[in-house]
Amino acid sequence: MFRRRYLAVVSVLILACGLALTACGATRHEDDNTLVVWSLQVQPERVAITKQAAARFTEQTGISVEIVPIEEAQVAQLLAAAALSREMPDVIGSVSLGLTRSFDQDGFLDRAAATQVVNDLGRDTWSDTSLGLSSDDGQQLSVPSDGWGQILVYRKDLFAQAGLAPPDTYENLLRAAETLTRDGTYGISLATDPSDPFTQQTFESLALGNNCQLLNDQGAPTMDSKACATTIDFYGQLATKYSPAGTQTVDTTRAAYFSGQVAMTMWSTFLLDELAGLRNDALPTCDECAASPTWLAENTGVLPLVTGPDAKGQARSYGEITSWVVTSSASTSDSTEFVKFMMSDGYEQWLSMAPEGKFPVRQGTRENPTEYVDAWSTMDAGVDTRKNLAEVYPPETIETLQTAPSNIGRWAITQGFGRYIGPLTAELPFAKAIADMGSGGLTAADAQAEMQATTKDITER
Questions:
Q1: Cα–Cα dist 287/440, whole Å
Q2: Dist. CA 204–CA 207, nearest whole Å
Q3: 3-class secondary structure, 393
Q4: I need a labelling partner for 147 at 20 to 30 A (CA). Which of 46, 238, 348, 442 fits?
């Protein structure tokens, strides 16, 4: 399989270099002692922070580092091309769980190096969830650095006025959606875009909350389970009865909540700085927001988990853990030292890029077990305006957010079949079924049958 993948990238090698000439040039040669680090954090301010941290590492160790920003959508193609030319980078930062599994399957990762970093710094200083999702057969595939979770946000003021309980269960959420859909407003805005991974992520989050799993421990598809039937029917009801008409996207779900048109939506924790009015191109627009830009944030409740009736204590929520990976062609000693630095002396600097979406999965050190969690709580978030989230959100919300990464689950990875995430994300079969169900083209039963058939097809390839 590894050789077939190599042959497949020959035809795209020139294209890959054209997409990112710096990446094709920024690889380590045998006579060059510079450590080459690709980073998927490409925004200019984040690149600057990464380079500042790398400069501190060089000052401490004497090891030169070249930081190369790479777009996430291009990294798989570029790494395959670099592997073919025997010029891979030494380290890659901000690698998602899906990409980590893909790179490992292709033989691009140094498992031993990642395991060494975690063991040297102390396994007990990481959250169990982050280590579990980034390991295989007792070995680390990567060094987990930070995470974000899918959350449900809701209007606390409207819930209080209607005497509604927080929407932390399927039952409470459905009751609230029904009650608050009235007078031209809607209970919830729920993703139904067939072409966007966001739709599939939202569905997976609610599915995991009901212990609806993609596969069992033997790798057999289980989308035909009772738990999945409950989730699919639940999602269909919300999308067709209590959400605005038409295709709902990552942008329209946010806009509907920000305008006051809906009482709930599901989004990632990256919503929090925008909700607080800290990003000019995504400001809250509700009537009350004109007088007070933080009004909506102050009247928003945050839930990291919605539990379904079939969960039986196994409820989880969708989220992402991003990692540092050491490649199989790296200069191991220098690479592991760099990753150790970025997870210790450089860790707070790394998290400070976007604390609303970079929650520390290494909580502290052996000497100070809460050092990084404590530091995170003091960091300013935002783009055009910077402000500590604790200045906007109440203490209970901040505490909830800090626990969000511990609720993360993911289809297939926990059963040991993370290799199926790639095709599922690339083809988006569930997003398409959800869109058809939301438009009335499929019944919930038909959508379930389609999801089961698609999963079976992917696992049998």
A1: 33
A2: 5
A3: coil
A4: 238
**311 in Cβ contact with 409 (< 8 Å):** no
Residues contacting 385, CB < 8 A, separation 6+: 277, 278, 279, 280
Give the model confidence (pLDDT) of 92-123 as tens digits: 999 999 999 999 999 999 999 999 999 999 99
Residues above pLDDT 70, as percent of the chain: 93
**pLDDT tens string 229-245:** 999 999 999 999 999 99
Residues 334, 113: Cα–Cα separation, whole Å: 11
CA triple 407-410-416, angle to 5 deg: 125
Q: By C-alpha distance, which of 155, 207, 163, 212 is closest to 186? A: 155
Token reading at 428: 């988006």
CB neighbourhood size of 309 (10 A): 14
Residue 69 phi/psi, 5-degree rounding, is -70, 135
CA distance 402 to 343: 18
CA distance linking residue 369 with residue 461, whole number of Å: 45
Q: Scan for tokens 């990256």, then name that residue.
A: 270
Those residues whose C-beta lies under 8 Å from the C-beta of residue 73, and which sit 6 or more positions away, are: none
Determine the pLDDT at residue 27.
53
Report d(CA 373, CA 370) in Å as an integer: 5
Structure tokens at 375: 């530091």
Distance CA 163, CA 176 (A): 10
What is the secondary structure of 20-72 as a DSSP string?
A: -HHHHH-S--TT--PEEEEES--SHHHHHHHHHHHHHHHHHH---EEEEE--H
